[in-house]
Design a protein that fits this description.
Beta Polymerase, domain 2; 17 strands; alpha/beta; five-stranded mixed β-sheet; globular; Beta Polymerase, domain 3; 583 residues
């Protein structure tokens, strides 16, 4: 979680620099570095140890030294000095999405607002409306931003949760007293956001494992310590529970602590119908009438199974249910009939259909991106750099496109058993018009269209833009369709019925973005799209070679959405994909 600390410090620096009116490009440099550090798929300490910090986009020698200082001390001297240069409390306001530096300073200067709680009170009482330039829509957006801020404090994104869990699970796996160890809870179900982290272990020496757990770094407080369970709070305020169980109960405990709550309730109801009892200790036969009732851990005579999840599900007459499906959305009923789908796996993915290079806002060259994709076992990579109007992301002019195409043609003539697609991520403007004319769009192998501006438009306007893009005969894929960015921006409102109908009618593929802060489409909308017969593409939106490794997060989201290999187009071979796009 040190990556999260670094990104938070850099993002705060960017905002303070804006308040102080310093060079805007300097502020953006910190913001860009923060964003790219957040999306790293590997431990930043490994990058430090291997002297690879400059592989992170936007990280030069100065920022690299600051990163090293934070990892060593947990803080940054430059940041501490910078904080002292602005009024106390102002920084908290800046952490609220939709509250920019100018507004934060205005609220402090005029109303002496110095906390998020006070800001919410003033907003709800109408006090902000008394200030010049503040309108009702502004207040509405601020309240939405406060809700996002609170949610971000309560939960973390999936990638951050996985990294945090790994910091504790990796060393415990090496402990000679631990026989089995795994994450449970919403993290194991791969939900897009996670609150607390649950870890389950098997050991004949619980005290040894708990002692080893409590000696791990990054622990701020110990919440509770028992014989087989302990809870800690990390330095970032994340609660982690460790439970130790007997081997004969591991499978039952895995099911119980993985959840979800509604899923477990359904399992217990099913067990009752079969004259069984299921809990975290195992599956038990219910005693005959007149026999002693089962106790908390029940008794050996009535124990049926519990060592593995497979045997627990079998005892209930169920097909094995993958953790990602355990949400009580009909999976138990289908498992009873052996009709669950065979879910998409990472091994099914044969290419990435959304990536950026140095031509726009990427860190690496096209060749470096292609080599990294090939190293992952892929057959192809879609180089979809930004279109011309997105200047902040280095959008490509028509002249740039000619140079890029020539380079891709040259590389394709040399690369063996690998194809680079000439593509673009084309902006959908506020009226639904694409950023390049049709005469240019037709020249691309694949056109990825996306909304990057006008997020606050009405549901009707956003839907109209997306539908219009779907109707363009040159568009192939709609990227990150709801525009969400975890902790920064909620999804914009869409009439999904109308949008999905247009995508289905015009054969548009919808993206499942594996970018850690997006995971968009989400699981619910993946399943709805599948039910409408829409094909999907699980893509990373990579801006570095390292980010290509985030594909697993998109696959997890697709699995939660019940997607199979047949629903996802980048499970096709390069020749099958060429045929799919009629290239």
């Amino acid at each position: 979680m040190i990556s999260k600390t670094i990104s938070e410090i850099f993002r705060a620096i960017a905002k303070i620099l804006e308040i102080k009116g310093e060079n805007v490009f300097r502020a953006r440099a910190y913001e860009r570095a923060a964003r790219n550090i957040e999306s790293l798929s590997e431990d930043i300490q490994d990058l430090i140890n291997e002297n690879r910090l400059n592989s992170i986009p936007g990280v030069g020698s100065d920022l690299a030294q600051k990163i090293i200082e934070i990892t060593k001390t947990g803080k940054l001297k430059f940041f501490e000095e910078l904080k002292r240069s602005i009024p106390e409390g102002l920084l908290d306001l800046l952490r609220v999405p939709s509250v920019g530096p100018k507004h934060a300073k205005l609220f402090y200067d005029k109303l002496k607002v110095k906390s998020v709680k006070e800001l919410e009170e003033f907003a709800r009482k109408g006090k902000l409306l008394e200030l010049e330039g503040i309108k009702e829509k502004t207040v509405e957006n601020i309240l939405k931003g406060i809700a996002l801020f609170k949610k971000g404090r309560e939960r973390m994104d999936l990638a951050s949760a996985l990294k945090t869990a790994d910091e504790f699970i990796k060393p415990l796996k090496k402990n000679p007293y631990a026989r089995k160890i795994s994450a449970c809870g919403s993290l194991r179900r791969m939900r897009e956001t996670v609150g607390d982290i649950d870890i389950l272990a098997v050991s004949g020496y619980p005290d040894k494992i708990i002692d080893a757990f409590l000696r791990l770094p990054n622990i701020k407080d110990v919440g509770a310590k028992g014989l087989t369970k302990t809870s800690v709070i990390t330095k970032e305020g994340i609660k982690i529970d460790l439970r130790i169980v007997e081997e004969k109960s591991f499978g039952a405990a895995m099911i119980y602590f993985t959840g979800s709550k509604n899923f477990n309730i359904k399992l217990r109801q099913l067990a009752i119908k079969k004259n069984l009892k299921i809990n975290e200790y195992g599956v038990f036969k219910v005693p005959a009438v007149g026999a002693p009732a089962l106790g908390a851990k029940d008794n050996k005579e009535n124990y049926l199974c519990g060592k593995s999840e497979e045997e627990v599900f079998t005892s209930l007459g169920l097909q094995f249910i993958e953790p990602e499906l355990r949400e009580d959305r009909g999976e138990i009923e289908l498992a009873a009939r052996d009709m669950l789908p065979r879910l998409l796996t990472l091994k099914d993915i044969r290419g990435d259909l959304h990536a950026h290079s140095q031509y726009s806002d990427g860190k690496n060259s096209i060749l470096e991106m292609a080599q990294a994709a090939r190293d992952l076992g892929y057959e192809y990579l879609n180089m979809s750099d930004h279109s011309q109007s997105l200047k902040v992301a280095g959008g490509l002019s028509l002249e740039d496109l000619k140079i890029k195409r020539a380079e891709i043609n040259k590389l394709n003539s040399k690369l063996k058993d690998f194809r680079i697609f000439f593509a673009a991520e084309v902006d959908i403007d506020s009226a639904g018009t694409l950023d390049y004319p049709d005469s240019v769009l037709v020249e691309f192998d694949i056109v990825v269209a996306a909304i990057h501006t006008g997020f606050k438009q009405s549901k009707q306007q956003i839907t109209k833009r997306l539908v219009k893009a779907c109707k363009n005969k040159n568009v192939d894929i709609i990227a990150h369709p709801t525009g969400k960015l975890w902790g920064t921006r909620d999804p914009y409102e869409i009439d999904f019925e109308e949008f999905f109908k247009a995508a289905s009618d015009y054969g548009i593929v919808l993206e499942v973005s594996a970018y850690p802060l997006r995971l968009d489409l989400n699981d619910v909308n993946c399943r709805k799209a599948k039910e409408k017969g829409i094909k999907l593409a699980v893509s990373t939106d990579s801006h570095t070679t390292d980010q290509l490794k985030c594909m697993s997060l998109g696959v997890a989201t697709a699995r939660r959405g019940w997607l199979t290999k047949d629903d996802v187009i980048n499970t096709l071979s390069v020749n099958e994909l060429l045929n799919f796009f009629k290239l």
